[in-house]
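One such given next:

>
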Amino acid sequence: MTDHHIGLIVPSSNLTMETELPRMLQAREAVHPEDRFVFHSSRMRMRHVTPEQLREMNAQTERAAAELADARPDVVASACLVAIMAQGPGHHCTAEAEIAGVLRAQGAAAPVVSSAGALLDGIAALGARRIAVVTPYVKELTALVTAYIEDAGVEVVDALSLEVPDNLAVARLDPRALLDHWRRLDLRRADALVLSACVQMPSLAAIQPVEEAAGLPVLSAATATTYRVLGELGLAARVPGAGRLLSGALGG
């Protein structure tokens, strides 16, 4: 049996990343009992999802990464998609490199995954060229997210903004509401559906039911981050009931 140590960099008000990602990896232990997962978190102060607070939070990255380095993680996941995407196209590469550099400087070299980069990788792994997106963000921030995705060569055919700026309120959204929200999107040209482009908005309970109802692959920032974490650890991306991306069918 192997213990895999996962470092998480999360906003101070995040309540969901530290629940959904562990739930997925604990579900994986049921089919791969040889692997166990241990989690270590460092927090960056942010209460409201506004451009100003996102910039202030990003400025805390070096401190958060240095704290995680002390735990000697096997992989580090940075978990605030919009904080990265709001900085402009391709910024996930810069953010991941910054964290990796801090880890190396502290003698704790480890691969780094960002939820922003992971979402793009998850879309690519599914072979999707056109997607629809649900976000909890105000329309201004959703526009930044869709522009970021489209800069990566993926067309966003439709997007739904739930317009919840308070980050704690986002965490308290009922994932069962997504069973209805997705029907407000025009999916006629979509190859896949991003049910939650935010690791703070709970969606895990809705991923598989919506995938079956929509007849399309359904992913979220959280399932995509899990896919990348498993890939960086060299483990099969197989999590029961978490959608096609984590079905094990993609070879990740």
